[in-house]
Amino acid sequence: MRMVDIIERKRDGVTLSDAEIRFFVEGYTKGEIPDYQASSFAMATLFRGMNKEEIATLTDAMMHSGDVIDLSSIKGVKVDKHSTGGVGDKTSLALGPLVAACGAKVAKMSGRGLGHTGGTLDKMESIPGMKIEVNEEDFIKQVNEIGIAIIGQTKKLVPADKKLYALRDVTGTVESIPLIASSIMSKKLASGSDAILLDVKFGRGAFMKTLDSAKELAETMVEIGDSLKRDTRAIITDMNQPLGLAVGNALEVKEAIDTLNGHGPKDFVELVRNAGSIMLQQAGIAKDMEDGYRLIDNAIADRSGLEKLKALVKAQGGDESYITNPEQFPVAKNIVEIKSDVAGYVERIDSLEIGLSAMRLGAGRETMADKIDMSAGILLKKKVGDKVEVGEVLALAHTNHESFAKELEDIRHAFNISPAEIKVDPIVHAYIKK
What we know:
alpha/beta; Transferase, Pyrimidine Nucleoside Phosphorylase, Chain A, domain 3; Pyrimidine Nucleoside Phosphorylase, Chain A, domain 2; 6-stranded mixed β-sheet; 17 helices; about 45% helix; about 15% strand
């Protein structure tokens, strides 16, 4: 078998065999297939696509290119959630503890943030002492004992994806639905959970810009999970404005704590309730959406979700007093108001611009070597649909930088104010399951 023949067959729109796809994944992972042939294959896939059988085989081959975590010794159904990334997305920090408080087992491996989207691990590390590197034995023990663990991915998990992901980023092949879907699902499946909920975001601040493209990606990933015998479901959620009010690591952790105390922003609470209800159904704990809502609401009302977050932090070496007293989190020395110069209603908040501005204020990294300022970020004071008067505060910029005039102007321009009242859409646009 020759790689050039496989490239030509995909280029010509021929369906690849199971053996051909596995030959590519194995050879590329081992370094036997060079980058120039892999990039040619990726470009052919971008243009010609793959059918669901090809995508399932590609995912399975990538999944088995390294470690596959065995969570069978964890009692009960193991549930996991994956977001395709967005601005202000601190969902795991509230959702995971709430679902675990309701009796589900949450065994989650997360990643770091790069660019305008923040990573769950970075946010967790704003809590002093938090360990995100946990070995497999301790990971399993922790989930068995307290029902939840959120850790960094093992370096041996899906090495094929690490190589292919880096290649796609520099060869103009990032947008291929089969390659995106297999990348996400290979990591989720290798992580060992029985059930996976995918939060596929669309809009200005998301990877998928349109509702239709987000649906296509979600449906593809649900099909992959189903073909590999995992209960996989997806929600399509709006990222045409930041999620919640807080953007930035410590700010977002504090917002997750506020939510577990019953004071979360409306859109964030709506997302957590919907995602939580679905995960509880996947775990066999809730019988339908309404039952799931009730259980999640109860876990907020009785603070059992908050107690579960404290248990998670303590188990992973963090200072749990920060959950009880979040005012201990570091505060930036410069907190600057951005005010509206017109009256009206907030029509749009450019999530991408807010995310990039937060990154430039110190809350994110442009390269993996950059150091994050945990106190930096942006706190929104207005959301889409809100009425605004001249001189009212739209947002607060938090930074330790000495020079930030451009960022303030960019944040101001991220808000589009309309003279007419604005209809606010629900955050969850679709629910996809087999």
